[in-house]
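Protein 1 of 2
SEQ + STRUCT:
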Amino acid sequence: MPPSLQTPVLFLPTSPFVALFGDLVAGNLRVVLVLLASG
């Protein structure tokens, strides 16, 4: 797990950026899973 998930104090000020980054990571993971499932 990234250390930022274990330190909410550092996590809060950048929550909008972290939310966007989380969405990008989730999207990339979905693409990878689809490629693995189809390949």
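Protein 2 of 2
SEQ + STRUCT:
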Amino acid sequence: MGLRKTCTATIMLSSGRTGALGVLERLWTKFEEGGGLMSVYEKLMQIQKTIKVPKTRKNDFGNFNFRNAEDIYKAFKKMEEQYRVLLVLNDEVISVNGCSYIKATATLIDTETGESIAASANAKEPQAAKAKMDESQTSGSASSYARKYALSGLFLLDDSVDVDSNQYIDTGEPATDAQVKIITDLCVKHNVNQAELYKKHKVKGRPTGAQAGVILNIFKKNFGDD
């Protein structure tokens, strides 16, 4: 589709006297109530386990279903109050080897502790705008694409068509660094031979995004908590 993506993840913790005092006050309140605060990691884990973002949008040209960034954000909004977190999306333009990329960062902020965790994804801006699209529309398209993959990386949403669907289409787009790392970590966690897993799914070298999505789906179905 003319846009390339990469994905990275970062962990951040807010600092400062005011923020620290606020966290201590909330911790003390929770202690007096006989409870404790979940960390931002625990909250994210719960969100990753429960968030559902079905692919309800139809691409008639490619004959497949997909989701976009707005769909993911809408699904997250239902959990915002429950887990006392908020989501912030930011874009910036970066240059890599003379090419312009939109770097989107999705940051999950714990409103109780001030902790935050973020995932970023880059989408390359096409050097030439597509027909009927001006420069602002081209940048907007790259931004939407990057945001979608930043959110997908944060919430562990694969971007393949469902593994059980006959609409499964592999476009050949390579898997993100985040997807590859997650697969490796899951193989170690569950004592799965990664080489054999790749061989079974006909992965040669680096998996495609679709292959990674299928593998992640299998982990979710077999182990449930990933």
